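Figure S4 source data
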Amino acid sequence: MEKIPMTAEGYSKLESEIRRLKSQERPAVIQAISEARAHGDLSENAEYHAAKERQSLVEGQILDLEDKYTRAQVIDVSKLNGSTVKFGATVTVVDEDTDEEKVYQIVGDVEADLAAGKISLSSPISRALIGKEEGDSIEVAAPGGARAYEILKVEYK
């Protein structure tokens, strides 16, 4: 069984989502199925079929998240340090063409969220950053063409 690296924050969010699905979504679906059953003939009851489909989706989500939860390898980023980029690092880079600064934290695939500045360990930019240090330049093959970045700062927080 392959371990899934993730930060303590990502692990906590995963745990919260499982708890929410089990304590809110699952009971709501069960209630919807009960109400739909009360309407009579199940073979032509669209509400019943929709509720059963929703139940299947929720149960699938729970199973998927629980699998990831049990295979999680939690890495405490606050105990890491150094000037080399590795999992958990918060990296400030500057685009060498546009001079636009960006801040990324390298996290596990499960917790990646580009809008929040969290990029997956398996993303092209993360793979280019791993092992580099402040002052190094990297080139990343992006859908819009190659992009060049310079690493300004590496932090572990």
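Figure S5 source data
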Amino acid sequence: MGRLLIKSLLSSKFPLVVRCFSSLEPNVLRTGDILRQTRIYSSEDVLEYSKVSQDSNPLHFDPESARTAGFDDPIVHGMLVAALFPRIISSHFPGAVYVSQSLHFRLPVYIGDKILGEVQALNIREIKKKYLVKFSTKCVKNGEILVLDGEAMTILPTLAVDEEQSTIDRN
């Protein structure tokens, strides 16, 4: 049943649902809204990710191998950094289903870099009492350097943001 719902949501030709919420509903996702979280990756994070993913590429552990490949130091796995996107979305919308993600790895992330992950709602469609949301996704390091970007599609059970999370940034 899950595959049928996803296929139905992705192939449907329903028009975009335009929502005009009043200021009385500040914690409801709208097109243009941005959700953010920061993270600093440690060598332990890289080691644990390597174990789970079975990616033991020496670029992530050996300074000499990293320098030979053109990096300053060992790099954080790109997919570990990209894991910020589903983390941000699911922490604000428990029960969210990730449907797809495109990624463009722009620059390396090193242990200790402060990474800001950001998702911005580009398109929201209501289908069968759920919401298909297209997000732009990006990560910047040290406040200004784009390291990763792309787009994600998710199915949200609601547009109400989990109140325990940070507030939505409005553009």
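The chain has a mean pLDDT of 86. The two ends are 37 Å apart (CA to CA).
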